[in-house]
Amino acid sequence: MSETMNHHHVPDAMTRDHAPWAGRIVSAFVVVALIADGTIQLFAPAQIASMLQETGFAMDLTRIVGPIILVCAILYAIPATAVLGAILVTGFLGGAICAHVRIGELGSPPELISLLLGATTWGGLYLRDPRIRAVLPLIH
């Protein structure tokens, strides 16, 4: 069967050329989302006051959580520290998911957003970092 007829074959050159750019775009979305969240936590905590109350977190924690989120975003954005950043983002989002499960909000929008953002974090890193693709060879 020729390559033009085999739609499941992904040429190596295409993977090398397009995957890193796709990964950068996906990763940029993650970074923007994290920076937005961290900025709101620091400069507009009243915008999320009701959510904090529902999950049982004190308002003054935004002064701690905001910088943590921003550091995670920065680490994830820098290629040399992206894996560490992805691990920290995953831990942070896992905590957010756990907070919603604890109050009985299984499948709630904030929980699903956290889950999707976590998956997107690793998806973007997978596409932009050949080391991750080597460890997790999902595309043959």
Task: Describe what you observe in this structure.
The protein has 140 residues and is an all-alpha fold. It has helices spanning 12-43, 49-55, 62-77, 82-102, 109-128, 130-135. The longest helix has 32 residues, at 12-43. The radius of gyration is 18 Å and the shape is globular. It starts with 11 loop residues before the first helix and ends in a 5-residue tail after the last helix.
Summarize this, please?
The protein is mostly helical and 140 residues long. It has six helices and no strands.
Which geometry do the CA atoms define? Answer: globular
Largest sheet, in brief, is:
none
Report the average pLDDT across residues: 85
Point out poorly predicted stretches: 1-11
Beginning-to-end CA distance, first to last residue: 17 Å
Radius of gyration: 18 Å
- Structural class given helices, strands, pairing? mainly alpha
